[in-house]
Every structure is written in C-alpha cells, then in structure tokens.
Design goal:
- With 311 residues, the protein is α/β, with parallel strands linked by helices.
- Helices cover 48% and strands 16% of the residues.
- It contains eleven helices and twelve strands.
- It has a six-stranded parallel β-sheet, sandwiched between helices. Strands 7-6-8-9 form a four-stranded parallel β-sheet, with helices on both faces. A two-stranded antiparallel ribbon has the order 10-12.
- β6, α6 and β7 form a beta-alpha-beta unit.
- It is elongated and about 55 Å long.
Length: 311
C-alpha cells in the first residue's frame, strides 16, 4: 500500500511540475498586427495541449526600447523557457546571452541572428521564414510575369532585421536586371503610409511595382493605387497572410504574397521548449516555415486555413 502511495505522490508531483512550466514569447509585434494574432493562437494552442503557461509580450506599436524592456522583464521572471524574435542583434544580444548563461533555454522565431559561428547567439533553434528567400523568390515571381520599369519597397519598420533581409532579397533579384529599386519608409501608420507612397508615385511616375513587407504596408499601397486610378498600371505585392490579403489577390489588387505559416512559429516554439525541458530533445539547426509564394493560381486551398485562424 505504501509503494502505491509513493508512486501516486510521484505522479502527482510530476504533473504539478509540468503544470508550473512558464514560457514567455517576447516579440517586436503586438496584437494590433493581425500577423501576431496568429502566432499567439499557435502559442496558446500548444500551451493548452501540453499543460504549460505561456505569456506573450509585444508592444502595441513597434518600439525597440519597449521590446528590450519586455525582454528584460521576461528574463527577470526566470521562466522555464524563452521565445524571442531577433529583430535587432545589438539590442538583444546581451540580455539573451545573460538569460542563456543563467540556464534559460531560448528559441528564436520569425527573425534569426544572421551571424554564424561563435558570434551567433547560442539559442536552441530558429523557427520561421527565410526572410531573404522570401524577398528574392517573390521578386523572381514578379520577373516571371513582367519586367518593372521602376520598383519601390515600402518598408514599415526600418531597421527590423527581417524586413531588411526581405528588402535585400528583392533588390538582389531586381538590380542585376538594371531595374531601379529603392526602399521607402512608410511607417506603421497606414494614413501616413498613404501620404508617403502618393508623394513617391507623383515624383516617380514610371514606378509600376510596389513591394510591401507585411499587411500593415500592403493596405496603404492598395489604397494609393486605387485613389490615384493606377489599377492595372502599378502592381502591388504582399507579405504574410490575412483574409483581406487573399481577397486582394483574388481581385487582382495584389500580385502575390509570401506565406511563412506563422501559426507554426508560435506552436512549435512552445512544443520544442516543452520537449527540451521534459526530455532534453531539441531540433538541430533551422526549422523553416516559409517562404511559400501565394498567387491567384493557388490561393483557393489556403483560404479555409486563413478563415480558421491558422494562417
């Protein structure tokens, strides 16, 4: 009877220990961005499945200082695991190395440390899109459809490592073709983005391709093209998925978008931390969730997953 009681106590203690696991996901993006709502859903679904606590910290509007403050707050809470976007290596290197040296396992999502070797932050794994390929492959799709006279890259978070890599991929695809292309800071304010893009198009009327790097940037681009009566003359690209983005693709207002399956970034990060803490298991290297180019030709199959909140 005593042996049975001891076994029951051990099982109960193990269950309580697992229930007390606390993970933090610290992101540069907040709930206002529909992209991060999907990441949060993945995080919450995995937390519920594995019986752990997961907390999301992200600024309402992009702010590097708020992001770093949130990261330090999460580390101070001494969580069992930390999930973080490496949007600015210089800003997060010290706190992340401090966290790792204190025994907190770290997984990077969405944006990795682009460095290699001993310079790279020693997190367990990166889960997310290959940002450079997302930009490059998207631009190559454009070239398969037509050759732009001039292109502009509407970037809404200047300095964001992932967006800068997307922009670099686009530039590397277009520049060898002799196509003029430059980055334009449209900010995270859609109304301001409309004004900035309109001014650019009036100054450069030969522009016939606008590359956007996320839903926040796509909205002002589509709006400007409609307001200026440039439908069919100026093409717009997207990045990431929303129901509105799919509608724009079907209507021909957006040429393509790049899907990085962000639900998996939130879900797998929690799952991997759980397995790491419980069994010492971890992936080796990057786990890529994108890029996947979605166009009018293949938009149908992904519509249901977007409506259900998985994309």
């Amino acid at each position: 009877m005593k042996k049975v009681l001891v076994i029951l106590l051990v099982v109960l203690s193990s269950s309580l220990l697992l229930a007390e696991m606390n993970f933090y996901l610290v992101s540069h993006g907040g709930p206002a961005d529909p992209f991060w709502g999907i990441v949060m859903k993945g995080m919450n679904d995995a937390a519920e499945k594995y019986g752990v606590n997961a907390t999301y910290l992200g600024p309402v509007k992009y702010s590097l200082q708020t992001f770093v403050n949130n990261l330090n707050a999460a580390i101070a809470a001494k969580p069992d695991g930390l999930i973080v976007t490496i949007t600015d290596v210089n800003a997060v290197e010290e706190p992340l190395k401090r966290a790792i040296s204190s025994g907190i396992p770290v997984i990077a999502i969405n944006v990795p440390d682009p460095r290699t070797g001993l310079d790279k932050i020693p997190y367990i794994a990166y889960i997310g899109n290959n940002e450079y390929l997302g930009g490059y492959n998207g631009a190559m799709y454009v070239l398969s459809q037509f050759t732009p006279k001039r292109a502009v890259i509407a970037i809404h978070e200047v300095g964001h490592a992932g967006m800068e890599m997307r922009a670099k991929g686009i530039m590397d695809a277009l520049s060898p073709k002799g196509i003029p292309v430059e980055k334009l800071n449209i900010t995270v304010d859609p109304s301001k983005g409309v004004s900035v893009l309109e001014g650019y198009l009036r100054k450069h009327p030969d522009t016939d391709m606008i590359f956007t790097l996320g839903p926040i940037g796509t909205l002002p681009a589509v709006t400007v093209v409609e307001d200026m009566g440039l439908e069919g003359k100026v093409k717009v690209s997207g990045f990431d998925l929303t129901e509105e983005m799919l509608k724009w693709i079907e209507e021909g207002k957006v040429l393509y978008t790049v899907d990085q399956q962000q639900y998996l970034q939130g879900y797998l990060a929690v799952e991997f931390l759980y397995f790491y803490k419980k069994y010492g298991l971890s992936p080796i290297g990057d786990v890529l969730t994108g890029p996947f180019i979605i166009t009018k030709d293949n938009v149908g199959p992904v519509e249901n997953s977007v409506k259900e909140g998985y994309r």
